[in-house]
Amino acid sequence: MRKNSRSAQNERTQECVFGSIVMTEGRYRLIGSTASPYAIKLRALMRYRRIPHDWVIMTKALREATAHLKPMLIPVLQYPDGSYRGETTTLAYDLEARHQARSVVPEDRAVAFVCDLLEDLADEWAVKPLFLYRWWDPEDQAYVSRWAGEEWSTSDAKAGSREEIEEFRQRQISRMVILGATDENRPLLEESYRRTLAAFEPHVGMANYLFGTRPSLADFAWFGQLSEMATDPSPMRIMRDRAPFTDHWVRRLDDASGVEGNWYPREQALGGFAEALLRIAGELYLPFLAANADAFAKGLERLEINVWGLPYALAPFKYQVKCLQQLRAKFAALDAGDRAALKPLLERTGCWAILEGG
Questions:
Q1: Which single residue of 38, 80, 98, 239 has CA 20 to 30 Å from 66?
Q2: Is the domain defined by 28-98 classed in CATH 3.40.30.10?
Q3: GST N-terminal domain: which residues (predicted)?
């Protein structure tokens, strides 16, 4: 039986115009760059979750269309209704509310908290050695500025032109001191990368993720950072030498749409892999967040810490005060049973006292 024209129109794929781009009804549009760890984090997550979307490289026209979002960061997710939103953790949780299948948040609340903490560690600390490696050595500068400069469209110069590439390179180099990529901090940043690889290498595999045989939000956050380091010249050589199976794991997680798996029971989920990264959080990241919050509260121009016998110093950041507040709020929201289950692990790894507010 032939369908009437109205029925056929309702069932076929429709296209709606928003600004200067065309969207397919019912699909998201993820706007980013392959050089952004946060953009590929969200792309891999959406691929795994089989959420219909189109991947689009950021252009000057799209920069203008999303200029109302503050701060202007990559990626931007355009929803099927045409609205634009940013910040990958917020987006990931919003997608959890909108799409039930193939969740990336562990069902166990204690494990879910650890997932949030390890995602934050990736998003807020692992990006620091990535930024250092990208803009310290001339080889990495040249490689990344050609790649990211072409895709990020941050200047008025023609995309991919020498002018745009050089403008992007100079822009990023000018931010090195602000973001702590200095000669003083370099030994700690490089050591944190080596320790991260050492934490991953014994545990990754064809079906091994942080909390099960399925990937979590934290896995995708680490994928984003490590995938870029597996591509940029200097950290790529280090990874291939020290952690070849981590290199393979990262490559596979780019598209895990065919992965089917389960969450581990609590005891197993909070075992070796998670504990190895929690130790980095307890020894490095949480002390940094606490020192940052203290320096910001006192109005200091500089925070200073010493981790693993190595110094680290930079101006305090308000955003990372918020990071610590959010982690403490999530920790406080756990019930007594979940906190009790986590206490031995968090004390053993040095996380407990700072999360409690100490």
A1: 98
A2: yes
A3: 30-101
